[in-house]
Structure formats: C-alpha cells, structure tokens
Specification:
The protein is α+β, with helices and mostly antiparallel strands. The protein contains ten helices and 15 strands. The chain is rod-shaped and about 155 Å long.
Length: 438
C-alpha cells in the first residue's frame, strides 16, 4: 500500500509535468511558426533586393544558380506557371519543385520573372536548436517540479502523521501535547478539531473515573450497615425484625447503586440519578442514626437524632446518602466520649460533632475531592476523601446547598433544601416529577 506522501508526490509531480509538457509543446509550435515567418521574411527581402538590382541593370540575363540553400531563377515568366499562381504580380508562398517542398518568393521583371526557392527542410533545421533549448528548460522544470512536489507532499502529510501519532497515544491512554494549529486552513481545522475531541474525551474519562470512585465510596455505607446489623443480630444486640428491616433497606440501596453502575456501562452515563419527591427530614435523621448506631458504639460516641417532622422536596435515598456521609465523617472526627447530633429543622438538616474542627484556611476547600483526606493525620480510620464531594454533588442536584461551620468546639454541616407541603396532592405531584442526573 502506497503512503499518502508518495501518492501526493506522484500526483503533484504528474500535474506539474503535464503542465510543463503542454507548455513546451505550445512553445515549440509558436517557436517554429516564428522561425518560419522569419525565414519567409528573409527570402522575401532577398528577392526584393535582387529584383531591384536587376531592374536597375537593363543588361541582365537569364540565371539559374544556387546561393547557399537558396536557388535563384531568372526565367521567362511562363516557366514558373506550375509554381506561381499569378505570374503578373509579386507573391510569396510554398510550392513543390522537383518533388521537394519549397518556400518561394516571386518577383516580376521586364519580360522575365525572378523566383527564389528554399527547401522547407532547411526551415526545420533552423528551429531545431530552439527545440533543444526548450527541452533543456523542460528538464530543469521537471527537476524543480519534483522538488516542489516533495515539499508540498511533506507539508501536507506531516500534520496528518502528527494526528495519527496523537490518535495512537490517545487510544493507549497516554498523555500528549496539543497539536499545533498552524498551516493551511484545512489542516489547522483538523488539528483544532482533534484537540477539542481530546479535551472532551479526557473530561469524559475523568467524569467516568470520578463517578466510579463515588459509587465505590457509596457502596461502603450500606455494606457497613449490613455487616453491623448482621453481627449485632448474631450477638443478640438487635431484634430479628429490626435487623431484617435494616438489612433489607440497605440491600435495596445497594441495588440502586448497582443500577447506577449498569447505567454507566450501558448508556455511557457518568452521573447519579436523582428523584424529586417529598421527604421528611426528621425521618431521615432517625434513619441515619439507626444505620450508624453500631459504628457509634464502636467509636464510643453518642449518636442522637433531634427535630420534628419537616418536609422538603428531595430524593429520600440520596438525602440519606448525604446524611450518612456527614455522620461517618463526624464519627471519625469526634473523640471517644463525645457526641454527634443529627437535627432536622425547617428546610434544613444539620450534622454536628464535637471534634477538633477544620482549620479556617481549609474550610473553603472542605467539599473538594481528597482535599481534607490528604491533610488527615489521625489515629482513627480515615475515609476515601470522596464523601464530602459526593455530598456537595448530590445536594446541588436536588436543588439545595450545603455549608460548613467549624471551630474549636466542633464542626456543623448544614444542608438546605426546598420546602415541600405535606399532603396527598403534594405527594402525587412530587412522585411524578422526572428524575434528574448528577
């Protein structure tokens, strides 16, 4: 298979060579015509000179001689009847004499005629040197065309090869520098389009990795609750009905997370699904406390839920994820003997701990991925660094906002959501709202 550069080189060279050949052919024709016209003009001038001399010399006689390549005939006019169309007036042209094509000039003299003839083969010999020069010029042109074709082909192929190399690097998930956008408009457009595609693909890959990390992080919460209740059930710490209810609830949450992963694989989606429905913040607080009671006992921390019934528009499962992430962080931050409170207030849910707090310079970055994780240096287990980032992502998707206040007495996270009136009509409207993606 021939390379693109070879094809471009051959095509450009062929086009230039064809153009040169056509130019040489036209030049040769024009050159020959000019030489012929010059030869005809020369023999005509010579005929005029001889005729004038003979007219001035009344004693001239018949003549038949050859001077160089020119045959000079002074004969009675009738002898030229087969060569000259009109014997009574001067004329120039071509005729056949003794089986050979001749270029002639005829002039009338008193009682006689003057005829100068030159073989046309002499004309061909006269313009052949010009043809040789044209061929040399053509050869130089072909060489120049070959060099120009090579440069043009390389200038076109080089950017395409850069794109091909960058594509291979992209397929291998290797980093590479952005392609230069110089050169012709088409090649610059190609490089620019490739750079945009690279940026979009990198962003999509990063979003997919972030989503997988988030889902992996969220899988730990229901698994921890299931493990805690199963161990508590084995130790007799929980009633079988209560343990079965919690384990069933957490299993359903696991199923939803698994569906998110399946959606990612099937639909190339890199986001969580979020519903809009009425949710009781007090119930979320109580459920969060129930699912983390075992962990709280392990950390020797008092975990309580406070607040009365208050309804907001949110996703119950996702809001429970938010509260669970905040409680997990609070339990890790609170020293033994401390307390963590989950409190429901109108339009907001608060999670407060009695830990050492977050440094003032770190508060603005609290919801960034891995920011607090990189700064952690504690004896207690440290999370994955994704929990607070997922909290921010989910709360924003539900149309709310989350903030943090921290000091020496502890840290309080506040989740604000849109209020939702409780009632049959409201429940039906809320349940019918389309799911959003985050």
């Amino acid at each position: 298979m021939r390379s693109l550069r070879a094809r471009l080189f051959a095509a450009t060279l062929a086009a230039l060579a064809l153009t040169l050949a056509l130019t040489i052919a036209i030049g040769a024709v024009l050159t020959r015509r000019q030489v012929d016209q010059s030869q005809a003009a020369n023999i005509a001038r010579r005929a005029d000179d001889i005729a004038q001399q003979r007219r001035q010399n009344v004693n001239y006689k018949r003549d038949d001689r050859v001077s160089g390549s020119v045959r000079i005939l002074i004969q009675p006019r009738a002898s030229f009847a087969k060569l000259v169309p009109n014997l009574s007036k001067d004329s120039d042209g071509q005729a056949t004499y003794q089986g050979q094509r001749q270029l002639y000039s005829y002039r009338t003299l008193p009682h006689l005629g003057l005829l100068l003839m030159r073989p046309t083969s002499v004309q061909s010999a006269a313009w052949r040197p010009f043809l040789g020069d044209l061929l040399l010029a053509a050869l130089a042109g072909v060489i120049l065309a070959a060099g120009l074709s090579f440069v043009v082909a390389r200038s076109i192929v080089r950017p395409i090869r850069r794109v091909a190399a960058a594509t291979r690097a992209l397929a291998a998930d290797e980093s590479h520098e952005p392609l230069p956008t110089g050169g012709t408009t088409e090649l610059a457009s190609l490089a620019q389009a490739f750079n945009q595609m690279t940026e979009q693909l990198a962003a999509a890959r990063q979003a997919e990795r972030d989503f997988l990390l988030s889902v992996s992080h969220e899988l730990k919460t229901p698994l921890t609750a299931i493990r805690g209740y199963s161990e508590g059930l084995a130790d007799g710490a929980f009633e079988p009905e209560e343990a079965a209810r919690i384990i069933s609830l957490e299993a359903r949450r696991l199923e939803r997370l698994v569906r998110d992963l399946l959606d990612l694989a099937r639909m190339n989606r890199s986001e969580f699904s979020v519903r809009r429905e009425p949710v009781d913040l007090a119930e979320v607080a109580r459920e969060t406390v129930r699912r983390h009671e075992a962990a709280a006992r392990e950390f020797e921390v008092a975990l309580t839920a406070e607040g009365d019934e208050t309804w907001v528009e949110a996703d119950a499962d996702r809001l429970l994820q938010v509260a669970s992430n905040l409680v997990e962080n609070a339990l890790r931050e609170t020293p033994a003997g401390g307390a963590v409170t989950v409190r429901a207030e109108p339009d907001r849910l608060l999670v407060a701990d009695a830990g050492a707090g977050i440094a003032p310079e770190d508060v603005p970055h609290a919801f960034e991925r891995f920011y607090l994780y990189d700064k952690a240096d504690k004896d207690r287990p440290v999370g994955s660094g994704l929990g607070l980032a997922i909290v921010k992502q989910l709360v924003t998707a539900m149309g709310g906002d989350v903030t943090v206040q921290s000091g020496q007495s502890g840290t309080t996270f506040e989740v604000r959501l849109r209020a939702q009136l409780r009632g049959v009509d409201d429940l039906e409207v809320g349940a019918g709202q389309p799911a959003k993606r985050v």
